[in-house]
Amino acid sequence: MIELQLDETIYNASILGLCRVFDYAKLEYSKSDFQTISFPESNLANFEEHYFAYLSAQYGHETNYYKMTNPTIVEFLLRAKTDIGDEKNLERLNAHIEKVKYWLSSNSYKNVYPFLSAIPFDFLEAAKSLKKVTQRKKETLEQIQPQIGDAVDALLQIVEHLKHKDAKRFIIPRVLTYQVIQGFWSNVSFLNSNASKKDLYEEYFNYFIKPAQDFLTSKKDEKKYGKNKLTCACCDNKMKSISEAFDLTWVQNLGVDGARKSSHYWNHQRNLFICPICNIVYSCLPLGFTLKNGIGLFINSNQSIVELLAYNKIQLRNDRGEEYTRDKLEEMAYSKIINEMYQHAENKKNVEIDNIQIVKYDKNNESIPYTFNMLSRDKAQQLYDSRNDFHYLTGKFVKENGDYISLYQEVIRRFYNGQRFSDLLYRLIRLVIDDKYADTFSIYKILKISNYVLNGGSHMTDKELRSIRISGYELRKVYRGQETKLNAISHRLLNALKVKNPNKFMETIVQAYSYKRHEKLGIPLFFTTTLSDIEKFQTIGYAFLIGLNGKDFEKEDMAKEEQVNE
Questions:
Q1: Closest listed residue to residue 114, CA positions, set 162, 167, 70
Q2: 3-class secondary structure, 57
Q3: CA 240 to chain centre
Q4: What SS3 string covers 347-379?
Q5: Does the N-terminal or the C-terminal CB of the chain have fewer CB atoms within 10 Å?
Q6: In what helix (H) or strand (E) does residue 398 lie, and over which residues does it extend?
Q7: Calpha distance 307→95 (Å, rounded)
Q8: Which residues pair with 361 in a beta bridge?
């Protein structure tokens, strides 16, 4: 039996990836020990097949192969064959033809074609033959429908041959090696610069599996094995020489090339090695993260293998096969953490739950692809208390200076870094005042999260915040028809909040209420508490401004709030 134990973060993510391959292939392994898994050597037989099968099943929908063969595009082609409908559909067809032509002619595909000899079809020639359908002046769509039918037939023929088992087996993994794996590790096996035209299954076997099998065979000679001097940095395995060991230079931002940078080691003597078994484990690193278009998450709960699997059980798609957004995946991950932590606390009341490490991965950030955050017990409680507000912000964006910004990402980043939300609230309300953003309800949700995070002397109840927001809206109603005046008041109040000047804020409030005398509308008493507490002043001020700039929120936003809080 082979035994592996949880260790540092990247190794733990790799063990998770290994377990996911085992689970997908229905291979047996034991999780009886808290932090250890054990599995038979037979699990390594055909492991390369299982590795790429899981990779394809998990991320095949992100490849251009899927964009050519998915049911939606096939349905469109079948309709277009007999009736293109309108010019817009013709543009869509021509755009698809261009993409298919480009994809089938790319190096990723051309390097795979030699392994598709069982398919009686020349993909490269088919790509060269594809041509867009042109519509001359005065030609109707009905007149060019025969050309459209021919183009569609050619595309459908390509789709039919792409569905061949060999095409799936080689094309999808090859594309994903660049889209998924290369961001985590490179330069060895099928990602070696000299292996782009070779069989990726054979390359993986030769670099990862065969050395491990040879090592396990030699390990059975206990007398010789006992003389080995080199110890694996990740497990208890010992190796007889450097030729039997591996380094970690191929794992992005992790290993040091001892041959080129020996100064990184004591007395210039290289002393960091991993065994062939752990070499396989690290190859599973990309499979330990939950990824969406190069952005990923890993929850490093290292108390046990069972917990590690449970915390990271996050689906990429819903029951209808629709992909979740990046925000939704992250929100689901944090919800999973909260649920598991509280379930764990319920089942084991006498056990102190450790902090949970959240690892984010960004393929586009080559210099610092990993960022690490700790979810403490206090933060977990705050996250749990404001879970509905976080959930509401998923998929909410604001356009600022020409760029779309995810409100969820902005808030969750500040939450984990322990930053205040006042700068974000200021920017959003300013956009509202300038009539460049209208979703004041999302701003209100951010304010509620900020209020939860404070959780001290300035912490206010939801009922209080709601009452303050309504007060702002009541003042707005008496200024109807005087938007310019209302905007001027809002700007002065906002600037007072930005510089944390409660006296200036109150001066503006008094002027605003005095200018519009109303028998049922007086200056609310809650403003009297803002002069002595800056944090409370800002919370009350932003709540009031949200209401002051809300539009008929009794009918719209209140209904949303009731629905979200149900």
A1: 167
A2: helix
A3: 42
A4: HCCCCCCCCEEEEEEECCCCCCCEEEEEECHHH
A5: C
A6: strand 397-400
A7: 46
A8: 296, 370
Output the six-digit token pair for 391. Answer: 């959930």
Helix, strand, or coil (residue 302): coil
Tokens 């299982």 label which residue? Answer: 50
DSSP string, 86-101: SHHHHHHHHHHHHHHH
On whether the CB atoms of residues 255 and 185 are closer than 8 A, the answer is no
284: helix, coil or strand? coil
* φ, ψ dihedrals at 245, nearest 5°: -100, 170
Instruction: Please tell me the distance from the alpha carbon of residue 433 to that of residue 488, in angstroms, as a whole number.
Output: 9
The sign of the torsion formed by the CA atoms of 546, 551, 554, 557 equals negative
Contact 356, 380 (CB under 8 A): yes
What's the distance, CA 312 to chain centroid? 12
pLDDT tens column, 140-172? 999 999 999 999 999 999 999 999 999 999 999
- Three-class DSSP category at 150: helix
- What six digits make up the tokens of 420? 């205040």
N residues, the chain: 566
Residue in 128, 71, 140 with CA at minimum distance from that of residue 100: 128
408 touches 331 (CB < 8 A): yes
| Assigned token pair, 185 | 């590790």
Residue 185's φ and ψ, nearest 5 degrees, are -150, 160
Strands 397-400 and 403-406: antiparallel
Burial of 355 (0-12, 13-18, 19+ CB in 10 A): middle
**DSSP class per residue in 291-342:** EETTEEEEEE-TT-HHHHHHHT---SB-TTSPBPPHHHHHHHHHHHHHHHHH
CA distance 448 to 543: 9
Quickly state the pLDDT bin for 267 (edges 50, 70, 90).
Answer: very low
Structure tokens at 489: 């008041």
Maximum distance among all alpha carbons in the chain?
98
Q: What's the rounded mean pLDDT across residues 439-457?
A: 83
Place of tokens 């995946």: 329
- Which residues, at least 6 apart from 454, have a Cβ–Cβ distance to it below 8 Å? 535, 539
98: CB partners within 8 A, 6+ apart: 132
**Pick the residue with more confidence: 19 or 514?**
19
The one-letter code for the residue type at 322 is: E
Stretch (H or E) spanning 236: none
Q: In this structure, is the dihedral angle defined by the CA atoms of residues 27, 32, 33 and 34, taken in order, positive or negative? A: positive
- Give the dihedral of Cα atoms 441, 445, 447, 448; nearest 10 deg: 130
Among residues 478, 432, 394, 440, the alpha carbon closest in space to that of 558 is found at: 440
The amino acid that residue 308 corresponds to is L
Q: Are 19 and 54 in contact (CB under 8 A)?
A: no
Least confident of 166-175, 419-428, 548-557: 548-557
pLDDT in tens, 278-292: 999 999 999 999 888
pTM of the model: 0.76
292 within 8 A of 394, measured Cβ to Cβ: no
> What strand order describes the sheet that includes 356-362?
290-292, 295-300, 356-362, 370-375
Q: What does the alpha-carbon distance between residue 536 and residue 464 come to, in Å, rounded to a whole number? A: 12
Name the nearest CA neighbour of 286 among 7, 12, 13: 13
